[in-house]
């Protein structure tokens, strides 16, 4: 039978929209395989011995037809990611002074409520703002952030009022939520240095109170802390001031899924700690390392994405890409867990170490590893899978815990098991996703 060699023109026109930014033949090979082309069809239709030989020919044409490659956006600077955790944690220096003024009875519940609201609202606002900015609507992004701040303050104040606590609880909730949203706005506009500078007086005063311990020092620290947060709020309002009208915002279709995932994540972590913030602060303190290490997780995620895209330029076959991708994934996960273990061990060392404390600390470290995986999957838009995985962890804790006898050790062990389940599911999803080269184009 005579073999008919078809020209590549039709194939080029079919694949050109998907391969406009291809940087290596491996990406072309992945696209060909997704179109159903195998080695047999490559031989019979195009006269090439296999798909990779055909991909080389297609890529050569792409280079000839488009000699000027599209610029590749550089990853976020490492230091920006690394400082996010410490910047978010700066108001923690004021907690001893605040406790001295209003008491721990109202401090911890207020922090739990506002942290949950701020976590969900901040995640949703950030996603909307980045989406609008990417579509050329920075004015809409700014307005969204500003109105999100207003909504957050109202929600925090309302929640604290329903708690039936003193006015100091309402003020604490509003101040804490204001910092959470406004610091997120400054980080969105890459004003890390400004945020640190504005919070420095309040943070320094809080640390000074820990040394002095005088009631007047507590009052001065809280006053300076409120003033610092007020300055952060003013900076956020100025950054989001109306500049130009760029039309009505068009929101992403997966915004609701992103909000659901943020809510599930906040619920999973906060419900595990809420039971201990008053009676067992040593257990609640084990989560401090996770807060401080969120910037490390973000940096590790950027580092992985950058490295795995570099692999595409170095290998020729999908199996090689998958193998090197797995090694990078293990390295990123190991680095994240090691960093969180160190950050968690520091505050735990100042508590009375017991078996429940060690288990709770391990659970937070494992959960941090899961968050590293979640960053990677979210970058690929796999939000539905993240929701399902987080939902499964919630079914185990607190779900299964409702059927077991009340026990602190039993509860923290179940929380550790739920965190391990969450990490295992995300690791499996991410490992399987490394077979799809198109995720990293």
Automatic annotation (TrEMBL):
The keyword Transmembrane helix applies. Signal peptide: none annotated. This is Uncharacterized protein. The chain crosses the membrane at residues 87-107, 113-132, 144-163, 169-189, 194-212, 218-239, 328-350, 356-376, 383-400, 412-431. Keywords: Membrane, Transmembrane, Transmembrane helix. It comes from Nonomuraea mangrovi.
